[in-house]
Amino acid sequence: MGISGGSILFACARRDAPAVIPGETLNASGCLVMPGLVNTHTHLPMSCFRGLADDLPLMEWLHGHMFPAEAKHVNREMIHRGALLAMAEMILSGTTTCCDSYFYESSVVQAAVEAGVRIVAGQGFIDFRPPDAEELRRKAAAAERFIAKWGPRAPMVTPSLFCHSAYTCDPETLRTVKRVADGAGVLFMMHLSETREEVEIIGSRYGARPVHHLRSLGVLGGKCAVVHGVWLDDDEMDILAESGTGLCHCPESNMKLASGIAPVPALLARGVAVGLGTDGSASNNDLDMLLELDTMAKLHKVATMNPTAMDAETALRIATIGGARVLGLQGLIGTIEPGKRADLIVIDLRRPHLTPLYHPCSQVVYACRGSDVRDSIIDGRIVMRDRELLTLDVQRVMDDVREIAERVKKDEGRA
Amino acid sequence: MGISGGSILFACARRDAPAVIPGETLNASGCLVMPGLVNTHTHLPMSCFRGLADDLPLMEWLHGHMFPAEAKHVNREMIHRGALLAMAEMILSGTTTCCDSYFYESSVVQAAVEAGVRIVAGQGFIDFRPPDAEELRRKAAAAERFIAKWGPRAPMVTPSLFCHSAYTCDPETLRTVKRVADGAGVLFMMHLSETREEVEIIGSRYGARPVHHLRSLGVLGGKCAVVHGVWLDDDEMDILAESGTGLCHCPESNMKLASGIAPVPALLARGVAVGLGTDGSASNNDLDMLLELDTMAKLHKVATMNPTAMDAETALRIATIGGARVLGLQGLIGTIEPGKRADLIVIDLRRPHLTPLYHPCSQVVYACRGSDVRDSIIDGRIVMRDRELLTLDVQRVMDDVREIAERVKKDEGRA
Fold first, then answer.
1. Which CATH number fits domain B2-16+25-405: 3.40.50.1980, 3.20.20.140, 3.30.300.30, 3.20.20.150?
2. Which residue in A235, A386, B212, B372 has its CB near the most CB atoms, within 10 A?
3. Superfamily name with CATH number, domain A35-331+381-402
4. A61 vs B258: CB contact, 8 Å cut-off?
5. Which tens digits make up the pLDDT trace of A44-58?
6. ipTM for this prediction
7. Nearest residue in chain A measured CA to CA from B392
8. What are phi and psi of A289, to 5 degrees?
9. Bridge-based pairing state of the strands A188-192 and A157-163
């Protein structure tokens, strides 16, 4: 395989390779080289709250722990430190592209740039009070500033706009943000139908199922992806398919918060683009896409009582080119093809739990985990070699987050 | 913590520790020391068939791939090599006790002894033709020989008897094997209600639900544990509880083969002893108990739509002392207590995906994986230090299995 200027030049048997001027080389014998994993949904700085509050009812988790911790501790420094820790964890486990949305998103982007990780960064919108015209103008201006700031960094940084949800954003906010996104040609995203309660709230407030509500507002289609989609009926799945709306699937988070199981095989059958996401570390509790893959493939088998419901190849596509499609990056990443950006991971197969090897796809999905990733290349740059991170000082990154966690613990002790 | 003669002498703060004659030491600062994991159900030599055939309907998987591969390749050498590979994988991922059943079980025990892994080894029974009196006498004698051979090795080797299932073993076989087990005071085990089809077969053959059938044969209770228990109704769960029958829970195998989800929270509420198992590597596809733990805790939350259905502490107990109870070894292993055998693992917490640390239990269940286990001590003996296996030549173990896999591949190619 040859890489030049950040792009894949060729991928073929040695005898068919063109003569090239030798540069830096990476010997991957005994290893598997595959496209880097695409994590389509996460809230990276929440790594600071990993394991802070588990096994609780959703409302107690949110209102008793997450919201208070965020209100007290979220600032630009915490965001930057938490995001750097997440970058380290992602590189170490094979993710080369992430799609994030959280507060102070510019500080997350800063961390991605330092780490050399490809990012789709969503400026977030949420209404805590009914929006008035002034508020909306401010929101639109903020969205435009965010896009203007990071757009020139493409394809390593891709700005996007992220409305929290239909139950926390008023119709006018959704319409305004979508209009700005369309105007700038960037992706519009939002959480959708994560819980049964959410569907009931939308029903009682707007007299419609969530997807119908969004369609009536004109926010579906174009560059648009929704996250979770656990509670979709057949009609809603048809609408997502027809409108070309993508889905970010977060199976482990949906399991852990007891939200439900998204009907992914039914969505795939309709041709909906599906990508995989870990969600934030407060609700998972890690960013390991290889483990998420494994769980996803098994979960849909048992959910449908059909061992063929999702095979290893389908799962692997979801975590790579599927995610790239959802993010609108399928022309750049997600497969190993000459001309695409070189986002590649090297998996060391010479390990007891990866022996013997019959089918590489099965091995990756059902037996590999993040710690088997030996090297990582993003945009042609080696960011990890022999499990050593080349872009980050991992000890310092961990120390910086521990310092924040000490403060969080003190507050939890007090509460 | 002090260890002497294979037992835990003390576990306390340094200032409270008795003066001891210093011997070998292991510095675990920055680490978490916990009881070794107890894998209550597996077919270790099936590591040779890891990933051979995935994503297939159960019958095609069994009759098209597993049974032919077993018929052709199972022999003492294959069993020994496959079991050694499994031993390496188990030690590397924190398992210190396993409960196995497969063909030529003595060769599996041999591998466990070489590796220094604690094993409950089940001599297997299955009827391929209706048993006559002679056949049954042969079976009983084989069971007695197996127990006599390995019993003296306790507590590192604990012989047990394993009937495949109620649909592959006739009532007389089940009764005979249970009688021998009771006579020798060893554990009797069997697969039970793994699939809906199995419940139907038993119903049509014996006119009863599987647990009622077993109760009528007198095989429940005493030292008895059943594996899977996916399709149990309330009444059957009550009978398991009343009879003191334990359950080996294999969530990932049940997911992957689309068998269903065992009602574990309901069994725990009734006081049934529940242990965790990975099942064989042909249906999982690994032996990583820390990953199995994580999946189990999340699966029961989403299955019951209740995020408090199984908390991290409950999950961890199932994988340690719960498993020990199921195997009848709770007096020896499963917790860190003076007087118990020293089966301990050391987890290195200084890693990005394990940072920060709020609650050790949550971290182990939701963020740790096998590769985070740094050292392993079984029966007071260090079998892994800094991820180096001290009892096995891991390269050779892998090479030996690869050789078998090459033969299996040739046959698959021919088929």
1. 3.20.20.140
2. B372
3. Metal-dependent hydrolases (3.20.20.140)
4. no
5. 999 999 999 999 987
6. 0.96
7. A352
8. -70, -25
9. parallel
